[in-house]
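So, can you check these tokens?
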Amino acid sequence: MERELKKVGVTVNHMWEQYLVLYPDGFQSSQFRHHYKIWGKRVNPVMHMNHKSGDKMYVDYAGKTLSIIDKESGELKEVQFFVAILGASQYTYAEASMSQQKEDFVRSVENAIRFFEGTPAAIVPDNLKSAVIKSSRFEPTINETLADLA
């Protein structure tokens, strides 16, 4: 079940529905979730991270590509879902952007900073191609535009 939940679009509710097909008289949703949560704590202990206020803003594009309808043309356009989150408070900013290109990414980061009404000590991208030129666990190379913004 743990492996299935890592797949795009799979939820605990989806897994419960599949479980009911195999075991029609089995647990209802709340009990299924309860037992899954207990099992998950034994199998996958979570590492708690302490965040200092104003220290880091984590940025990434989330999930699948979304679609919007252009009001003027009625055309269906695909958009990317940008998310920025402050580590300590979990305060979140999200917006749709037309692409994950460098320009759209930097604009979204600027919009997030304006929304939060302050600049964090560090902006942490998750190895996005529009943010990171060379990936590295310890010293990634950040693109020049994002570095200038920081």
